[in-house]
Amino acid sequence: MNISYELVTQEDQQLILALGEAVNEEFVIPCLSSDGQKAMRNARKGDIEQATNTEIYTSIKAVKNGAIVGYVAWRQGNYIAQLYVSSKYQNQGVGRGLIAEMLKRSGASSIELKASVNAVGFYERLGFQSVDTEQVKNGIRYVPMLLKL
């Protein structure tokens, strides 16, 4: 698959927001209680909008045929705050490619994240390990994970 990886720009914000919200609704929201669904929807919009704030995040988009098909946003050098891949492009190496690009650009020797429960298997296939049991905060379920290189 011919994918290019580029820095996210301010002009990408609406496309990034739409992609993140669509993936959340399809894969994350169904795994949550009604309280968790409400909390996730309230938190995610602001979080996703922040992905283009270069003072906080470094963000990379995956582009195929001029369309954004995924992105990763990280802060503090090695903490992935967001990783979204369009459902049409999942299981095709886009997420793996985004993490590889993040590692190349950040130079990090480890990666930390809080995986949505639906994404734990994906991260485990990449070598991430759970560092604690499943957690719940405001009804949002996640698993703290770490990849040591």
From TrEMBL:
Pfam families: Acetyltransf_10 (PF13673). It comes from the Bacteria. One of its GO terms (molecular function) is acyltransferase activity, transferring groups other than amino-acyl groups. Keywords: Transferase. CDD domains: NAT_SF (cd04301). Residues 3-149 form the N-acetyltransferase domain. This is GNAT family acetyltransferase. PROSITE patterns: GNAT (PS51186).
